[in-house]
Amino acid sequence: MNDSSPIPPSPRAEFLGGIRAELPLLLGVVPFGMIFGVLGLAAGMPGWAVVLSSSLIFGGSSQVVFAQLWGAATPPAVTVATIGVVNLRHLLYSAAVADFLRGLPWRWKLLLAYLLTDEAFAAALPRFRDGPATPHRHIFLLGTGFTLWAGWQLSTLAGVMLGSTIPAGWSLDFSIALTFIALLVLAVHRRSDAGAALVAAAVVLPAMALPHKLGLLVAALAGIVAGLALRHFDGKRA
Amino acid sequence: MSTTTLLLTMAACGAVTFLIRLSFIAFGHHLPDDPRLGIVLRYVPSAILGALIAPEIFAVGGAADFSPDNPRLWAAFIALLTAWQTRNVLVTIATGMLALWALQAIRF
């Protein structure tokens, strides 16, 4: 909106601006990365795989789900499908930033897509939406994305090193459920959200008898349908 | 499962996640611009999290356990209240683990 500035911000200024916007969010991300490192080991994954998942998958809650499914010896195809569903919300982020990245070379689109996580998106969107439409603004997203990426890799590594010193028998696998409970409470804004979660939780227990660990996907689908059916009970809020 | 399986499964999960993130950035002009997509996607996190939580509480090790003696049930309930009040992931995890350890200590 503000086009009055005669000199557009330099690439360096955009990158540093992205780092500054992301740093406060690391406060929540770094401990979560460490917890993921610890619980990845508790779920039975080797340490190198826990660390590697942070760069290969690079999505906190989906990595927790991956560790859990790995621990439960889930068939690979079902694991991949489930991770896809968990990360499906990134479609919305991709759609939201697409307009601002139009016309960039492919290498930029590939790099920024890789870095497009919840936190990098959240920290960069105000710059895109409200800041000036200058040539280097995509580098702001590189700044938020890179900062989050580096923080996530280091904190996962720290968690794995810490986790290998914690004795078994501390029931640390329960931290997986606790992480999900906290994320669920943050995700529930309306009655229909709570309905989706309750129906999925009720369906998953009998559905665990389904072959190939398909119960999780069936239950998630039932929850989504329930949420859609219940959304007329949410009142008039947008 | 073997190391190769673990690596390939993880790489495939990464590829799927990357393609989802790339979708509209790279192929936006070929994808439908339908507001119904957002309406369906909004229920994905709640549904998948609900489906993930229930077995971790009620079916540890595969067998269903709905009895009030199940310490994870009460620890999860305390964590739920904590999450509700604080809206803080770390405080919720810490409180839930402390609750579980306390309940296990009382029982044994």
What class do helices, strands and sheet pairing of chain A give? Answer: mainly alpha
Number of self-contained structural domains of chain A: 2
Radius of gyration of chain B: 20 Å
What is the subunit arrangement here? heterodimer
Tell me, rounded to a whole number, the average pLDDT of chain A. 89
Which band does the percent of strand residues of chain A land in? Answer: under 5%
Question: Mind summarizing the main beta sheet of chain B?
Answer: none
Distance between the termini of chain B: 35 Å
Largest sheet of chain A: none
Number of strands of chain B: 0
Shape of chain A: globular
> What percentage of residues of chain B falls in helices of 4 or more residues?
over 70%
Low-confidence stretches of chain A: none
In short:
The complex is a heterodimer of chains A (238) and B (108). Chain A is mainly alpha-helical. Chain A has eleven helices and no strands.
Labels describing this entry:
heterodimer; A: 238 residues; mainly alpha; 11 helices; globular; B: 108 residues; 2 domains; 5 helices
How are the secondary structure elements laid out?
The complex is a heterodimer of chains A (238) and B (108).
Chain A: H1 11-42, H2 47-56, H3 60-71, H4 76-86, H5 90-101, H6 106-114, H7 118-130, H8 138-163, H9 174-187, H10 191-207, H11 215-230
Chain B: H1 3-27, H2 35-41, H3 44-58, H4 71-86, H5 89-107
